[in-house]
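Q: A reviewer asked whether we had any structural model of the full assembly, not just the individual parts. We don't, so I'm hoping you can provide one. Inputs are below.
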Amino acid sequence: MDFLIQLFTDPYAFYNSHTLLIAQIGINSILAASMFAVLYSGQLSLAAPGFMAIGAYTAVLMSLYLHTPLALNFLAGTLFAGVTGLAVGLPVLRLRGVFLAIATIGFIEALRLGVILNFPIKVNGEPITGGGLGLKNPDADPLGGINMVLIALAVVIFLMWRLTKGRLGHAWSAIRQDELAALSQGINVARYKMFAFVLSALLAGFAGALETNLNFFVDPNEYGVPRTVQILTFAVLGGTGNIFGPVVGSLFLTSLPELARGAKDYRDILSGVILIAVIVFRPQGIVGRGGLAIIRPRWWPQRQSRAAAPG
Amino acid sequence: MLLRLDNVQRHFGGVRAVDGVSLEVEKGSIQGLIGPNGAGKTTLVNVITGYVPAESGRAFIESDDLTGLPSHRIAALGIARTFQNIRLFKDLTALDNVIVGMHTRRADDTLAQLGTLPVFRRDQRTRLSEARQLMETVGLDPGAVAKRAAGTLPYGDQRRLEIARALALRPRLLILDEPAAGMNPSEKHGMRVLIERLNEQGLTILLIDHDMHLVMGVCKRVAVLNFGRKIADGTPAEVSTDASVIKAYLGTGGEREVASAPGAAGLNEVEEEVVKAAAEQTPTAAEPESAILEVRDLSVSYGAVNAVRGASLRVAEGEVVALIGANGAGKSTILNTLSGVIRPRSGTATFDGLDLTTANPSTIVRRGLVQVPEGREILARQTVLENLELATWGSRGDGAGTRARIEAVMKRFPILGERRAMKAATLSGGEQQMLALARGLLAKPRLLLLDEPSLGLAPQMVDEVFAAIEEIHREGTTILLVEQNALRALEIADRAYVIETGTILLTGSGDELLHNPAVRRAYLGG
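A: Here is a predicted structure for the entire assembly that you could use as a starting point for your response.
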């Protein structure tokens, strides 16, 4: 409760005392947007943490060994994740549904256990990635990074919102609902799925690189299966009908531990109960069909009635 | 010629789904494509549209070679289609469904979307008004349905919307795969008017449908497929009197000559009045007084589709009664309602005092009403013996008794005894049907419902299956038989009901119906 009271009575103090939380919400929202890109085109890809790891390690290693500027490191991390997305997508995008999910989990685990922990380039006998010990990142700027995160989030939301409105978005929707029917309308299904997959990899890589700016330490265990489940939950809980669903989902889930702080030892149980309740009562997501119907007051004009009105 | 297929072939495993079909569709015409269940019609469409690559043969639309192209390229070349089981984008609005259809002739606006350029807005307005026009063309009111999710529209509107979406492609050829399936007579008439109007506007149409009134009514030419081969191609009049077509639809009558099939000879002279009189004649085989199965005014719907409309029938103990009619007439729906799998909308059905409209399916089986479903539904990955053992679940606990019963049915069907340890999937179609029959018998039926026991079987196997059915009947089991192979079914049936679009058209003894031209009409239209 204190959390909400402070938010509404003294937003400035709230911002100062919860900077890291707000920054994490921003990062998680970008990750949720990455998940949104694949889900919107009907692909259950769980590869996001893999692309995050590529973005994060690329950015930090460039900063440590090449001393290149931050913007260049982020750009390189993002692009490298995108290129990897293209290479991974070529074989795995033939798969659908749960088979795609399993293949992408295979990718993130192979990357984490096979490549990051046993990187072939060594320094003093240890992999350059730090192996299981992780990587120190002395250049991080946790408090200063928040502005960058919020601007990036705004850009990502705008980008995804507009992309889903045009021909591309229509094609993605069509593919999500019925691939065969989409083909029958002349949509190059394979190409549009690949575009969504690579876009998702770019966003995840970007979020991974951004996140390194908030922590002095890169932990390889952050990029495993639990993370991918968390990101999937952001998107599904928020709703995948439009980009605002995943953003609301990550806002809600990331701040849930704070909201439930009053429950003390029972905090995790309370969080779990709230999660189940949302899924049971809003299966289409918080921002499901009909927009934010859950918080819309009764007297608010409804879209349906306007559409039905004559003229 | 707009579309030309040249000796197209496609096999699935050992099944020759499309076996060397050549077909020409004249520009501006409506070409019909018909054939019994499993004839390869949908596979042929899937080959034309590129979902299933052909193994050999070539396909052209005007001068463009379609052979080996991916589906989306074929669509872009101007071949649009609708689907047998409607495939709209259900969560998109009706309007968006049509706009997705414009994909191939719409410039990519991904970058323009990032700024809201005025050019883009103008294009968007043009598209919206065109989409509304297309909806009007197919008879939808854009004001009422444009903003609704496609999946929430009534069934008939969904069919029309799918056509509007296909038209949005501005196709050279429109393929309609069973556009009138599940429609009532007035909806069917509306669909016929729409098809004719689209054709008058210059559109070439390839029409696949089981409703012969529709196909024979609108098509200039009709091609007939059977077992993957084209067996006839000509005007509707030529095709509907072709002996091989009648044989394909009504089945073969054992030793009976095809010439004696209903209406096979001198059919052109059969006048409308004669057919009507035949349909209205009082049946000499009256319905039995006392019946073990009694169905009254049964109506069944799937959502907005009325599959069965007020059907009544009776079966007395010891009879073999056949239920015949074309694909989609509602035969299987009636059986599924009797076995409690589907609940009717109205009407009654009682079996030996048990109300079948409310009874639990397992109770129905225990009381002795057992269905052998269409497509056999055996457990493919279990052995023959395991399949049979599972069928004795109702009397588990009585180990020695069930073993004896299983041995008994294996003696009846020796082939099952020989193959007891083999996986059911490795059996041939006929052997699988025997297994399904044996499984049905193990449930100790008093009334056995058989749904299309000869479906997809080679002629010799059909003989064996029917011999088995006759033997089961001789041993005292009452049988209600649903068959597309009408001649065969009528031969062994005491009585039969002819069903058309969900209603009982006529009834009579097997012999009477064998010579009744109305039967042919129910299958092939007139």
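A: Points you may want to mention in the reply: Chain B touches chain A at residues 49-51, 70-73, 75-76, 80-81, 83, 87-92, 96, 99-101, 103-104, 106-110, 112-114, 120, 147, 165-166, 168-169 (CB under 8 Å). Confidence is low (pLDDT under 50) at residues 254-272 of chain B.
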